[in-house]
Amino acid sequence: MNTPPLRIAIVRLSALGDIINTAVVLQIIRCNYPNALIDWFVEEAFAPILSGHPLLNEVVPIPLKRIKKQKNLSLLRTTIHSLRSREPYDHIIDAQGLLKSALVSAFLRGPVHGFDRSSAREGASAWFYKTASSIPYDMNVIKRNVMVITQALGIPYSDALIEQKTPVFCSESAPETEKKIALVIGASWPSKCYPKEHFAALCDLLPYPCILIWGSSQEYDDAQWIAQHCANASVSEKMSLKELVSCIASCTLTIGNDTGPTHIAWAMNRPSITLFGPTNERMIYPTPINTFIKSPSKVNIFHINKNDFSIGEISPSVIFKKAQELL
Description:
This protein is of the alpha/beta class. The chain is built from twelve helices and twelve strands.
């Protein structure tokens, strides 16, 4: 008799960078459970980056932000009913550790695993789990993401699981014919953003054409300003998440703030330099081709100071020197 495939649910709703830094687990799971059916529950705005992924059975968009913004009780009821009506899972893993992700996990049918109370970002989320992992919150985030899932599935962890990864997402980029550098100029907080004046100075130093990656109207305005002050820079077109993956995958180097588009370079095994001010290298997995520059400020990961604008103290010449090493 054939054994039915293992049914696994991963709940990682947001943000983009966290989804990118968790998706490496798909190839790890498949290596150990080749026939597993893996469903990923994600905030609907970020579903496109996972849609069509060859290692996923289904991407399930959850409209939490829309429910909250619209105060739409009908949509909330429909979403809960849809979650409860799904076929039971052998393993449900909350890889986020927030109350919202714990609630989504709890509405599904099957045993839920997550971070324990001392490890989760919101300790109360652990109330909803049958089993839990104790993984220090200040550990490297990518290790945390992988470890909570491998522990749930009984897969022995080693750093090699991460270090030997193949590109995490599919890319439609053409083979590289000319060298170009992606500059990711935005981030979720103003204090995580390298000043536009410094980006312009950096573009003047870099030896290859620079593409300015933007995602909001403010970032677009900043990109326009940089391009107007530097002949070596051009503003990218508005891109979908899949187009963004292909763009980053086609670039010789990505330099950017601590934000999702910069992390795509690591996920796609492409060279990158991440700039840190109020956050630190815990947010990436450094490799010989994926490195970082941290401002002089000290970071308390348990109490992030969003008013720490020290990223502006990083000299463009220091970034250029690091870029030369990777180029």
